[in-house]
Design brief:
Among the domains are: 116 residues, Leucine-rich repeat, LRR (right-handed beta-alpha superhelix); 131 residues, Ribonuclease Inhibitor (Leucine-rich repeat, LRR (right-handed beta-alpha superhelix)); 199 residues, Transferase(Phosphotransferase) domain 1 (Transferase(Phosphotransferase), domain 1). It has a 19-stranded mixed sheet, with no helix packed on it. It has a 7-stranded parallel sheet with strand order 8-10-12-14-16-18-20, with no helix packed on it. A 5-stranded parallel sheet has the order 27-29-31-33-35. It has 13 helices and 42 strands. A hairpin with a 5-residue loop joins strand 39 and strand 40. Helix 7 runs antiparallel to helix 10 and helix 7 runs antiparallel to helix 13. By secondary structure, the protein is of the alpha/beta class.
């Protein structure tokens, strides 16, 4: 191997000399071996690449031209490769296809792949490549037909030299961080069929000239920052099948020329600032299968011409300012599967024709529909009843009784009839909806008792019945639902509370309304907090959606105040964890799931073990003792772990491939090594005050002291936090 690399060194320094000294080592073998040396390949996936071979044509991922016996294709998609791209690939002078997608390659592109004069396809998508693309990258783009740099971390402007790649048919730069405006030469690529620049930071208006793109089949500029009106020239791209301009800031109306796009299947203009009415000519786009005009500022009525779209499968005009009735002509849209007209100002009765088409999703919520739904649901076709999966008619002015025929929609997963004026009792046939997961009948005028038969809906995960006039007992038959994942159960009943718990009121505590306890079903009934839980905000948000330092500090402080109040009431939370910190609409934290310690005698072994299991990483070390004495110091330990979790953005316990990382131990080790600042969430780098961040970590370590008596009480924690926010003295010693 040492001899080989000596040869390689000479090769790249004196190519003529090497060619004469080592005629058996062709350029392809040498180039691929150098490429292999620059990267890491797990599990020996490139073990067949042997430098002693005369030809690489039998190597994995390599394809050769049978005539020249030279490498034509190199396809290593999903090989788990890591490292940086070296210059070895430039020796593959007859390469036509280079695909290294779905790997872990890093660094910038410092070599000009476009200089490979025979290269037709370049795919580096789904890696972690970064940096800007040099303006020289496409200056000698030869015969390139397809380029994909999608889903990397590239930044900077799209190079102007791209306009020189006259043979390009497909260009995909989506899922990066490209900024600036579209390059002026983009519309000179007259052979372009597919253009995807979605999910970047591009801005400005779409430049003129798109009318010359006679071969364009698909264009996606979704999720950028484009402004201005869509140019009229787009209607001259007669071959367009798909147009996605959603999630930008476009304004004005839809260009009239678009009625010429009779081959277009998908028109996605949602989440912009389009105004005016939905044009009548939209019905001339006869090939449309998906039409999304949601979340704009459109006004007027839904046009009758939509009934001409016989191929339409998805129509979404939600979150606009549309008025009037839904046109009866739409019953001709026999292929329609999803209809979303929610969050508008439509009036009249709930139309019957959508229940005759076999739709899967029907969303009418937040309009001004009125009248009874009895005849509408009862007259629906039997075949349609078995196809509907989602029905949302909430937030209207519908009245009358909930028809028993609702129970005939056997394929429903989601049913929301809340915030109307329905009266009477819940029909017993609701229990026939065996696969229903969410049922929301809240905020109506329903009365009577909850029917025993509701226990037959064995897949229910969310049942919302609050703000009605129910009376009587919760049916014990609901115990048949036991073992399912009940995320929320909102029942507007007053049930006898444990002493003290019912009197606990604090801005940072979720109000505990009551509980229901039988051997087969255990329920705690809380107020509903709409902002989700802290765990979701910390660990499940994507992209640039993350909690700021100020948000995190306020959450920690609020949680500390809520826990302090519990302790002052001689109540122990017992189950501190980020999923039990709920965030309301104003960003205020609220502790939930508290006071379980008082209910422990009522918990069976299954419930107890599941609660402890879910709190792993937050549990104080004294839980390891056989005789567990639950004190407020257990809560302090869990709170300390929570502080470290919020500051670092890491889970209390993380399971790696061959290791388990405990957050407390990791942070304490970094503290002792003087590297504690490295522990702070990388998303906050440069966006937090060090004079608050470091003391916050120290407080977390203080609270997670191994010896319970060394931990502060929660009142002291609140005082310390207020000192950290406004530092004026006082020191924290980690235990």
């Amino acid at each position: 191997m040492r001899i080989l690399f000596g040869v390689l060194l000479v090769f790249f320094s004196f190519p003529i000399l090497v060619k004469s000294l080592t005629p058996s080592l062709n350029d392809d073998v040498l180039g691929l071996i150098v490429f292999k040396a620059d990267i890491q390949h797990p599990d020996g996936k490139l073990s067949s690449w042997n430098e002693d071979d005369v030809s690489p044509c039998d190597w994995v991922g390599v394809k050769c031209n049978p005539r020249s016996n030279r490498v034509s294709d190199l396809v290593l998609d999903g090989f788990g490769l890591s490292g940086k791209l070296g210059r070895g690939l430039l020796k593959l002078q007859l390469l036509r296809k280079l695909s290294l997608a779905k790997n872990n390659l890093t660094g910038s592109i410092s070599i000009g792949f476009a200089q490979l004069s025979n290269l037709r396809v370049l795919d580096l998508s789904e890696n972690s490549l970064s940096g800007s693309i040099s303006n020289d990258f496409f200056r000698q783009c030869g015969s390139l037909r397809s380029v994909s740099l999608a889903n990397n971390k590239f930044s900077g402007h799209i190079p102007e030299s791209l306009g020189m790649c006259s043979t390009l048919a497909s260009l995909n730069f989506s899922g990066n961080q490209f900024s600036g405006s579209l390059p002026s030469g983009l519309w000179s690529l007259h052979g372009l069929r597919m253009l995807d620049l979605s999910d970047n930071l591009l801005e400005g208006e779409i430049p003129n000239g798109i009318e010359g793109m006679n071969n364009l089949r698909g264009i996606s500029l979704r999720k950028n920052r484009f402004t201005g009106e869509v140019p009229e020239g787009i209607g001259d791209c007669f071959l367009l099948r798909s147009i996605d301009l959603s999630e930008n800031s476009f304004s004005g109306g839809l260009p009239n020329t678009m009625q010429q796009l009779t081959l277009c299947n998908n028109l996605l203009f949602g989440k912009n600032g389009f105004t005016r009415e939905v044009p009548e000519w939209i019905g001339e786009m006869r090939s449309l299968e998906t039409l999304d005009l949601s979340e704009n500022n459109l006004t007027g009525q839904v046009p009758d011409s939509l009934g001409k779209l016989l191929s339409l499968k998805v129509l979404n005009v939600s979150k606009n300012s549309l008025t009037g009735l839904l046109p009866e002509s739409m019953k001709n849209c026999v292929n329609l599967l999803t209809l979303d007209i929610s969050h508008n100002y439509l009036t009249g009765e709930l139309p019957s024709w959508p229940f005759e088409l076999g739709l899967q999703q029907l969303l009418f919520s937040d309009n001004r529909l009125s009248g009874s739904v009895d005849n509408t649901l009862a007259s629906s076709l039997e075949s349609s009843r078995h196809k509907l999966v989602v029905l949302d008619i909430s937030k209207n002015q519908l009245s009358g009784e909930i028809p028993s025929s609702t129970g005939d929609f056997s394929n429903l997963h989601f049913l929301n009839m809340s915030k109307n004026s329905f009266v009477g009792s819940i029909p017993a046939r609701i229990g026939q909806l065996k696969i229903l997961e969410t049922l929301d009948l809240s905020d109506n005028q329903l009365n009577g008792s909850i029917p025993l038969e509701i226990g037959g809906a064995t897949s229910l995960e969310e049942l919302w019945l609050e703000k009605n006039l129910f009376e009587g007992n919760i049916p014990t038959a609901s115990g048949s639902i036991r073992g399912k994942r009940w995320r929320r159960l909102l029942l507007y009943f007053w049930i006898k509370m444990p002493k003290n718990e019912g009197k606990v009121h604090h801005d940072n505590l979720v109000a505990l309304e009551g509980y229901y306890w039988t051997p087969s079903l255990q329920l705690l009934i809380y107020e509903y907090v709409s902002g989700g839980n802290l765990h979701k905000h910390l660990h499940e948000e994507s992209g640039g959606n993350y909690l700021s330092w100020n948000d995190r500090f306020n959450i920690i402080l609020g949680a500390a105040k809520g826990l302090t109040h519990l302790h002052q009431m001689n109540l122990i939370h017992y189950n501190i964890k980020s999923s039990n910190i709920l965030i309301d609409n104003s960003g205020e934290p609220k502790l939930a799931d508290y006071s379980l310690a008082r209910l422990l005698p009522m918990l069976d072994r299954y419930i107890l073990s599941s609660k402890i299991q879910s709190a792993l990483g937050y549990m104080a070390p004294e839980f390891a003792c056989k005789t567990v004495k639950i004190t407020e110091k257990c809560d302090v330990y869990g709170f300390g772990v929570l502080v470290l979790e919020v500051v670092t953005g890491k889970r209390p316990v993380e399971y790696l491939e061959d290791d388990v990382v405990v957050l407390c131990d990791m942070v304490r080790g970094s503290w002792e090594e003087g590297r504690v600042e490295e522990c702070i969430d990388s998303r906050l780098q440069g966006k937090f005050p060090v004079e608050e961040g470091i003391p916050m970590i120290k407080l977390g370590l203080f609270c997670t002291s191994q010896v319970p008596s060394n931990r502060p009480d929660m009142a002291e924690v609140v005082s310390i936090l207020e000192l950290i926010r406004c530092p004026s003295g006082g020191q924290i010693e980690s235990g």
